[in-house]
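Module 6 notes. Inverse folding takes a fixed backbone as the condition and produces residue identities as the prediction. Think of it as a translation problem where the source language is geometry and the target language is the twenty amino acids. Below is one complete input and output pair. Work through it position by position during the lab.
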């Protein structure tokens, strides 16, 4: 087994930092909801991290953001931070980000890069997996039964579908323009349209 070169490690650290920063910046786009879980653009950053960084580096970018939030920095939607966010209604969604980027990254590794694979991975990992963690925790924290909580979470779906489309478009454009940005290290000639 070969040792990773210092330049590879530096590039990985840089990618992690860039995507952590992207997730934080996208948290400034916020639509508050009465449920206590706001609509934000941060999940777009999570989707992009999974698509570009893959299953090994993307979770590190998300964990970095969550660690910064845990120490009190206002890096989450609406300038939130501190340990309180990990016991609030959105706590499950935050944990779901980690699982979601792993799933996105794994789905992207199952074959060659295509727009439809990107869209599927972003939807499955960035929406379904995140909801699977977020909805039960939101129900538990708010004391609202799981069914009504899941039903109320449908308010997020149109925005999340827009984020899936945006993440797919950005990932496809980035793959064409700068394939070296992707952590999978595979050589790319063109992005398949099929």
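Target side of the pair, the amino acids:
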């Amino acid at each position: 087994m070969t040792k990773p070169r210092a330049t590879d490690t530096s590039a990985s650290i840089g990618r992690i930092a860039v995507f952590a920063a992207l997730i934080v910046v996208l948290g400034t786009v916020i639509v508050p909801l009465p449920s206590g879980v706001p609509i934000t653009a941060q999940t777009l950053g999570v989707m992009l991290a999974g698509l570009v960084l893959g299953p090994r580096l993307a979770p590190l970018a998300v964990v970095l953001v969550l660690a910064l939030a845990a120490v009190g920095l206002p890096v989450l939607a609406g300038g939130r931070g501190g340990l309180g966010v990990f016991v609030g209604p959105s706590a499950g969604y935050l944990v779901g980000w980690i699982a979601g980027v792993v799933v996105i990254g794994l789905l992207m590794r199952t074959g060659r890069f295509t727009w439809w694979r990107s869209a599927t991975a972003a939807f499955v990992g960035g929406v379904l997996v995140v909801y699977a963690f977020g909805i039960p925790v939101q129900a538990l924290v708010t004391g609202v039964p799981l069914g009504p909580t899941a039903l109320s979470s449908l308010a997020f779906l149109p925005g999340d579908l827009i984020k899936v489309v945006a993440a797919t478009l950005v990932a496809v454009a980035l793959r064409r323009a700068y394939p070296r940005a992707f952590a999978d290290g595979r050589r790319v000639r063109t992005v398949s349209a099929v």
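Reference fact for the lab report: Residues 10-181 form a domain with the Arp2/3 complex 21 kDa subunit ARPC3 fold (CATH 1.10.1760.20).
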